[in-house]
Amino acid sequence: MAVSGFEGFEKRLELHFSGDDPATGKGLRRLDFFSLEKVLHAVQCTVVSAVGNKYFDSYVLSESSLFVYPTKIIIKTCGTTQLLKSVRPFVDYGLTLGLTLCGCSFNDEVVYLEANLPNNLSCKKASTMNSKSCYKWHVFTACDEGCMVGGVGMHAGDLYTVEICMTELDGVLAKKFFRRFNDGKTGDSAGREMTEITGISEINKNALICDYAFDPCGYSMNGIDKNRYFTIHVTPEDGFSYASFECVGSVYDDKDEILEILKKVVKVFRPEALSVSTTDDGLD
Ligand SMILES: C[S@@+](CC[C@H](N)C(=O)[O-])C[C@H]1O[C@@H](n2cnc3c(N)ncnc32)[C@H](O)[C@@H]1O
């Protein structure tokens, strides 16, 4: 945790691999827990809770979340962590399984990324998306020639990611993410209670939820529903309150469905300011 207590906006790294793991089809999910912990130690965070299903494994981290699919890793950690230190070990691990990296993301640490990404990723792009607020999204993408067809990613799929960053949370709602003194609960049981009383459990009733409450305050959860996840991380302290939400949508979903989800999320936090981004696999 940052010395100031302010954890800040997250950095998000998404690594896509191509190829199959003929032995089990589990691919990157074969990464053993000890090796995973070693990578996370370098990043400066730890696993606080975990859950998986037949599609992927999901980890709630002390500093956000990690999702491991057979050929995809998504890791999200806060501003003070060393997220990029996970790039090389994850790439190397993929190589030991015969998987090749074909895409990735981030910003000013472009130099570090360029030095640590495989040479075949020649189509690189770093962008800063300005907005009217004081916040900007920084995005770095990279893929190999095979992914680019007329500027559109060949891997463009049906799925896309929606992220919301919320600041200046409603004070009364933010209080719900503080533990009661001596509540006699574990991080898991207090997390479960927060999921219920805040309305987070209503966001997707079909999801299997893995939640965790920090002491004295703060909350993280991953929800998994078939091959899709959603994740929420809350820093409720007055003066620098912040919450993030991320979920996976499909172009085939009813458009109202995603809007309903977003409305439910905003109702949980009622932030003064929010910023939304969508990303698809087209790497555009
Ligand atoms: C939910 S954690 C995750 C941090 C990350 N920036 C995020 O938002 O995804 C942040 C909140 O948990 C609290 N917290 C308490 N103990 C913590 C710990 N050991 N590690 C990280 N956060 C902790 C912080 O004060 C803050 O309110």
From TrEMBL:
Pathway: Amine and polyamine biosynthesis; S-adenosylmethioninamine biosynthesis; S-adenosylmethioninamine from S-adenosyl-L-methionine: step 1/1. Pfam families: SAM_decarbox. PROSITE patterns: ADOMETDC (PS01336). Keywords: Autocatalytic cleavage, Polyamine biosynthesis, Spermidine biosynthesis. SUPFAM superfamilies: S-adenosylmethionine decarboxylase. The keyword Transmembrane does not apply. The keyword Hydrolase does not apply. It comes from the Eukaryota. Belongs to the eukaryotic AdoMetDC family. This is Adenosylmethionine decarboxylase. It comes from Rehmannia glutinosa.
